Inverse folding.
C-alpha cells in the first residue's frame, strides 16, 4: 500500500500545529516542542468530589475552569513529530492538552466530555506551539455515552465522512474521505487550491497542493478512488481538508502507524 504522510493542515488565525512549512495554508511551524509542564499535580485525573462536597475552584493558585468540549487527537504526526491531543469547545475555541497522543484518552476521541482544567501555557521563552495550553484535572463523558469497555489500546481511525455538508460541521476534526484523485494543478505557480470530488456524489472539498506534493499524493491515480485523511477547516464557510495521508482505494487504516 502506498502511503504518503504529509503535514496535516490546520487553519486557524490563532493556532500553529507545528507542521513543516510545506504549505502556505497552515500557520508557521513551531520549533521542537517540549511537553507542556503540568502545574503541580494538574494534568492527572483526580477523584471527583463526593456528593455535597464543593469542587475545587483553584489548583496551585490557578482558577479551575469547567467546560464541555469534544476530544480530538491528531491521527498523523506533523512537523517536529507533533501529534497533539486537543479539546474543541462547542464555540470553536481549541485547547491543546498534550503534544503527543494520550493513550488513556483514546476512548474519548470524537466524544463530548466535561472537563475541569487550568491554564497551562508555557513561559513565553519556552519552545511551544501557538495554541492555548490547558492541564486537565478531571474529565468525564457527557450525553449519557458509555465509556468503551475494555479501554481502547489504539487510536481510533478518523471517521468516514461522505458529504461536503457534513464536513462543514466538523471544523478542526480529523476525517477520512473517499475522493477521486485530481489532475495535476497547472493554473497557478507554487501552491494551488485543488477541488476533490467526493465519491458517491457527496460534493466538493478543497485541498492545497503543489506540483511536488501532487506527485507524491495523486500521480498515477488521476480519476481513481483514493482515501484522504486530514483535518477539516473552513474557508468562507466551505470545507477544506489537509492531505495528511493519501492511500489508493478505500483504506480503513490509511495514515495509521
Amino acid at each position: 500500500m502506498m502511503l504518503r504522510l504529509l503535514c496535516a493542515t490546520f487553519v486557524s488565525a490563532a493556532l500553529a500545529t507545528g507542521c513543516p512549512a510545506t504549505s502556505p495554508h497552515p500557520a508557521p511551524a513551531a520549533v521542537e516542542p517540549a511537553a507542556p509542564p503540568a502545574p503541580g499535580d494538574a494534568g492527572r485525573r483526580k477523584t471527583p468530589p463526593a456528593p455535597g462536597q464543593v469542587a475545587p475552584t483553584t489548583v496551585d493558585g490557578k482558577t479551575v475552569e469547567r467546560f464541555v468540549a469534544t476530544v480530538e487527537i491528531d491521527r498523523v504526526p506533523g512537523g517536529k513529530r507533533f501529534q497533539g491531543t486537543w479539546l474543541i469547545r462547542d464555540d470553536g475555541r481549541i485547547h491543546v492538552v498534550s503534544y503527543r497522543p494520550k493513550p488513556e484518552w483514546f476512548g474519548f476521541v470524537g466524544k463530548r466530555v466535561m472537563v475541569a482544567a487550568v491554564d497551562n501555557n508555557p513561559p513565553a521563552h519556552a519552545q511551544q506551539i501557538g495554541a492555548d495550553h490547558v492541564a486537565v484535572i478531571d474529565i468525564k463523558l457527557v450525553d449519557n455515552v458509555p465509556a468503551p469497555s475494555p479501554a481502547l489500546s489504539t487510536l481510533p481511525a478518523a471517521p468516514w465522512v461522505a458529504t461536503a455538508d457534513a464536513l462543514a460541521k466538523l471544523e478542526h476534526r480529523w476525517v477520512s474521505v473517499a475522493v477521486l484523485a485530481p489532475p495535476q494543478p497547472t493554473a497557478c505557480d507554487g501552491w494551488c487550491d485543488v477541488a476533490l470530488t467526493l465519491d458517491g456524489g457527496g460534493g466538493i472539498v478543497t485541498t492545497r497542493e503543489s506540483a511536488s506534493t501532487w506527485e507524491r499524493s495523486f500521480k498515477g491515480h488521476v480519476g481513481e478512488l483514493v482515501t484522504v485523511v486530514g483535518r477539516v477547516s473552513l474557508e468562507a464557510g466551505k470545507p477544506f481538508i489537509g492531505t495528511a495521508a493519501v492511500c489508493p482505494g478505500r483504506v480503513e487504516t490509511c495514515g495509521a502507524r
Observations:
- The chain has a mean pLDDT of 81.
